[in-house]
Amino acid sequence: MPQRKPPHRSAVEYAALGGLFCVSLALPANAAERLDIMHWWVSSGEQASIEVLRERIRAQGLKWHEQAVAGSGTARYIDALRKRVASGRPPSASQMIGFEIQEWAKAGHLESLDEAAARNQWDEVVPFGIQALSKYQGHWYAAPINVHSTNWLWINQRLLEKLGSPPAPDTWDDLVLLLERARAAGMIPLAVGWEAWEHTLLFESIAVSTGGAEFYRRAFVELDAEALPLPLAIRIFERMRVLSRFVDPGFRQRRWDQATDMVRKGEALLQVQGTWVDGEFALHGMQPGRDFQCFRFPDTQGVVLFNSDQYVLLKNGPGSQAARRTLLNTLMDPDFQAAVNRRSGAIPARVDVPKDGFDACGRRAIDDMRSANMRRTMMGSIAMGNANPPAVKTTIYSLVSRHLKGELDDLRAGQALLRALSGDP
Questions:
Q1: Are residues 323 and 35 in contact, defined by beta-carbon separation less than 8 angstroms?
Q2: Which of 89, 159, 266, 405 is the most buried (most CB within 10 A)?
Q3: Average pLDDT over the chain, rounded to whole?
Q4: Which residue spans within 225-359 are E strands per DSSP?
């Protein structure tokens, strides 16, 4: 439910130094107090989004100290956070996703958010799939600010028109035909970066497309190895092999956002990636329908594979309970979630925020989320750590990336996947 905003107070200044972005933060009643925020939003589009939070916090008379660390699928980021906590310097709040929230709550590092959740009725407005990750043993430990979905195609409109403006690829065969046409026309069909989490984004969309929603839930969320017979595992990797034929050799040296730039600049036809691409495109003034198209990955219509950026409060971090309460209220405020997600390409992590001001891709994503939430086809992304625990995710990262690079054949990759889901080394 919409909440009353705290009274506005004076703004404060901040400084950005290299890869670390720092702002002094204190409550007016105590000039020495500060909140220390840690996050991994470092790309151009992500920085435009975090500025929304900076502005809201400043407007409420708070100062903060901010550290941004590139995520690498969150692995590098979590390492940096772990070092800070081990050295006795935990931040006040940290961005976190997926099962990492469960692990940090289990280890006793996080403050319970039950009081704020009950007061603001989070159980009624946060989608069920996200709640399962925000909570540990029935208690709230994280405040979700958005929903990114990963099973999307992002297609350059100008290149699509050069191919005769074919209709949206609704099936796997449609997608392969489109990629073949692009290659025949001298285009790079599929832009991909070098990191394993990106390769796993391809894998998870193919897995749903090949086996269906219920299969994905049983195999990758519930970790029921019996739900994945070896022939189906091999079939998924065969399709991965097909897509690998449309990737240019330069993928081994580029980041995900550089792959996005290839699509934006018309250097590649499409990218399979999360809705943060919409934020990158919007930063450059691009509009869906005019400059690019967003389509669900073929045969995954009705399914939302999601990543939800959440914030946790670290025990023993700087900042009073009053300051932390103000931060939580801001993060879960419907107006804030609408504002930040119109910039980021994501959508609010609440089902009650109007679609006003979102572009066509955002409005479609909101409709998809509301429908999938009710049908229980809104499921966590493997690549983004929202489907299964970190140990399983890391194993899948490795075997999927090795397969894409030609280091594993389809049979060996399928066998390794079955072992990963059954808990075998």
A1: yes
A2: 159
A3: 90
A4: 268-272, 292-296, 304-307, 310-313
Q: 149-171 pLDDT, tens per residue? A: 999 999 999 999 999 999 999 99
Average pLDDT over residues 313-334: 93
Kindly report the CATH number that applies to the domain delimited by 150-305+383-422.
Answer: 3.40.190.10
What distance in Å separates the CA atoms of residue 404 and residue 154, rounded to the nearest whole number?
A: 20
The identity of residue 235, as a single letter, is R
Only one residue has tokens 């950026």, namely: 309
Q: What is the pLDDT of residues 119-135, one digit of tens each?
A: 999 999 999 999 999 99
Q: Which residues contact 263 (CB under 8 A, 6 or more apart)?
A: 154, 155, 156, 191, 269, 270, 271, 277, 292
| Least confident range of 11-15, 47-51, 138-142, 184-188 | 11-15
Tell me the CATH number of domain 14-148+307-360, given options 3.40.1360.10, 3.40.1190.10, 3.40.190.10, 3.40.50.980.
Answer: 3.40.190.10
Q: Which helix (H) or strand (E) holds 297?
A: none
- Taking a C-beta distance cutoff of 8 angstroms, is the pair 366, 74 a contact? no
| pLDDT value at 374 more than 80 | yes
DSSP state, residue 314? B
Strand bridging mode 292-296 / 188-190: unpaired
Q: Is 241 exposed, middle or buried (0-12, 13-18, 19+ CB in 10 A)?
A: middle
One-letter identity of residue 177: L
Name the residue ranges covered by the structural domains of the chain: 14-148+307-360, 150-305+383-422
Residues paired with residue 188 on neighbouring β-strands, in sequence order: 268
Strand, coil or helix: 256: helix
Q: Do 64 and 345 form a contact (C-beta atoms < 8 A)? A: no
- CA pseudo-torsion sign 176, 179, 183, 185: positive
Gap between the Cα atoms of 358 and 362, Å rounded: 5
Residue % of the chain over a pLDDT of 90: 81
Amino acid at the residue 51: E
Q: What does the pLDDT average to over 76-102?
A: 94
Is-contact 321 144, C-beta < 8 A?
Answer: no
Beta pairing partners, 66: 37
